[in-house]
Amino acid sequence: MIVLGIESSCDETGLALYDTEHGLLAHALHSQIAMHQEYGGVVPELASRDHIRRALPLLTEVLTQAKLDKHQIDAIAYTQGPGLAGALLVGASVACGLALALDKPVIGIHHLEGHLLSPLLASQPPQFPFIALLVSGGHTQLMRVDGVGQYKLLGETLDDAAGEAFDKSAKLLGLTYPGGPAISRLAEFGDPAAYKLPRPMLHSKDLNFSFSGLKTAVLTVVKNHNTDICEQDKANIARGFVDALVDVLVAKSMTALKEQGLKRLVIAGGVGANQQLRTALNAAAAKRRYQVFYPELEFCTDNGAMIAFAGAMRLQQNPALATREYGFNVRPRWPLHELQT
């Protein structure tokens, strides 16, 4: 079965073809980072319009890569939510319009499930069950995963997501969008002893997170410098922020593994590409003889491959999930625990 995946939840347009017998056949991605940089963040209307421009050329690109004709597609999976409403509507309309034209079934995919399953695309994928740390611009959650569709929420952020805290703190330091990679690069030159920023909820007796206080701590330090803040001070603040956030993510992840009696940890979402986080997780896991699995770097951020793969896994598990009813709706807000199995 060959599944076309379409991802358009935010500011990346991703299309991919996944074959249940031969694996990932092709994928293509267009990022809107350059377009949104001058605004310091994603402008929803501009994002939606750009998805319209990019979708069909990317479809041609993946079909060419895979040396397939569009009629050889067996099903089309698209991101139904969560995400920006206008952006989601573009992907849904392209998927359902194409499916109608080709007389193929469609299936809506939960964006977070795509991220959650993306490490399974690796050459050495994790085996179920495992703990998943979903960490991105919009979400920070710890999940127990016993199989496709078998997810138990263990803890989540009570306010800002980790990726959001990265971006907002980077903006406070005058760094360019996207802020996460920028603040991480700057932190490499910082002194870890210069600023000991708070580790919110590090010692709480649950697996929830809170990062708004950490962001406020960065704001306070920046304001104390007034306008006189040199590049080394910025690097020191960045290092203090990254160390604090990473410490919390690592500690909670290790606690989740211990409490659930599991030894495999999967990292998913854009922040999973962060090298400081990877280094700290690897070190902590090695001490406890745990295993840590990551998506390939190209699949950490939003992409069509994860949607095609999630769609294929869902359809293999339950072919009845596919439909030839081409009216569609999207779900900008869609908690993962509401996902039907």
TrEMBL record:
The gene is tsaD. Required for the formation of a threonylcarbamoyl group on adenosine at position 37 (t(6)A37) in tRNAs that read codons beginning with adenine. Is involved in the transfer of the threonylcarbamoyl moiety of threonylcarbamoyl-AMP (TC-AMP) to the N6 group of A37, together with TsaE and TsaB. TsaD likely plays a direct catalytic role in this reaction. PROSITE patterns: GLYCOPROTEASE (PS01016). SUPFAM superfamilies: Actin-like ATPase domain (SSF53067). Binds 1 Fe(2+) ion per subunit. CDD domains: ASKHA_NBD_TsaD_bac. HAMAP family: TsaD. Fe cation binds at residues 111, 115, 302. Belongs to the KAE1 / TsaD family. It is found in: Cytoplasm. Signal peptide: none annotated. The lineage of its organism: Bacteria, Pseudomonadati, Pseudomonadota, Betaproteobacteria, Burkholderiales. It comes from the Bacteria. It catalyses: L-threonylcarbamoyladenylate + adenosine(37) in tRNA = N(6)-L-threonylcarbamoyladenosine(37) in tRNA + AMP + H(+). Pfam families: TsaD (PF00814). This is tRNA N6-adenosine threonylcarbamoyltransferase. GO terms for molecular function: iron ion binding; tRNA N(6)-L-threonylcarbamoyladenine synthase activity. GO terms for biological process: tRNA threonylcarbamoyladenosine modification. Substrate binds at residues 134-138, 167, 180, 274. InterPro entries: ATPase_NBD, Gcp-like_dom, KAE1/TsaD, Peptidase_M22_CS, TsaD. Keywords: Acyltransferase, Cytoplasm, Iron, Metal-binding, Transferase, tRNA processing. It is an enzyme of class 2 (transferase). One of its GO terms (cellular component) is cytoplasm.
